[in-house]
Description:
This protein has helices spanning 2-13, 26-47, 51-74, 80-105, 112-135, 149-165, 174-188, 208-223, 225-250, and strands spanning 143-145, 193-195. By secondary structure, the protein is mainly α. It has one domain (25-249): CDP-alcohol phosphotransferase transmembrane (TM) domain (Four Helix Bundle (Hemerythrin (Met), subunit A)), CATH 1.20.120.1760. The protein has a two-stranded antiparallel ribbon. The N and C termini lie far apart (68 Å).
Amino acid sequence: MHDGNDAGAQDADTVVVRKPRKGIYILPNLFTLAALFGGFYAIVMAMNGRYDMAAVGVFCAMVLDSLDGRVARMTNTQSAFGEQMDSLSDMVSFGAAPALISYEWALRGLGRWGWFAAFVYCACAALRLARFNVNTGVVDKRYFQGLPSPAAAALVAGFIWLTTDLGMKGEELMWPTFVVALYSGLTMVTNVPFYSFKDLSMKRSVPFATIVAIALVIAVVNLDPPKVIFGLFVCYGLSGYVVYGVRKARGLQTSVISTSTDEPDERGLH
Length: 270
């Protein structure tokens, strides 16, 4: 009798542990899909000859791409699926879209040299994203190894947005577009260090003057978005070479490969 009661008690105490169902987190992937739509929208607008709207689509994709990783961390919804989805979205929005927009806008007139420049940019974006994915754990989180693909796309799209806003046509700027596309593409696959801004914590308190400065920057951007935004990204696109030159002159290490085993906190920007 006691044995039966003991067995029943043990059965009652037994807790069935069910494995959690596998699924896809909706919130961060919504931002990723929205960024992907921005790249798709940019390509469609370029096909319709609306190059200014195509450039705006790339910039919208860049903003949304910067949010998906942060949203995933804040809601604790990081996943391997999300990382792969983010990379594929980036390839469309910051790889294929800028290459196709620049080709349709100006590079087509250069013949083989035109599709050469567009393909080099697209291929370098793919190589840049692949290298980022495999080097995430060894690169100093304060710097990107090469120009990040959203910034490269911003250089190409910003140049087109600015010149169309000034009333210029692609036929007049074939070779300048060629130079911008090649510079942006090849800089993505260099080892030049570009500051990543990942060590800036959003949870850290800042002086009141910092908020005022941010408000001023937003106001300045709104004065003339094409000129200001393109100017900012030109400065950033050159900053890596300045950092490299300063480090080289001082005899410091120029590689961003870190000796630390700490992984960067943010994987959303490439």
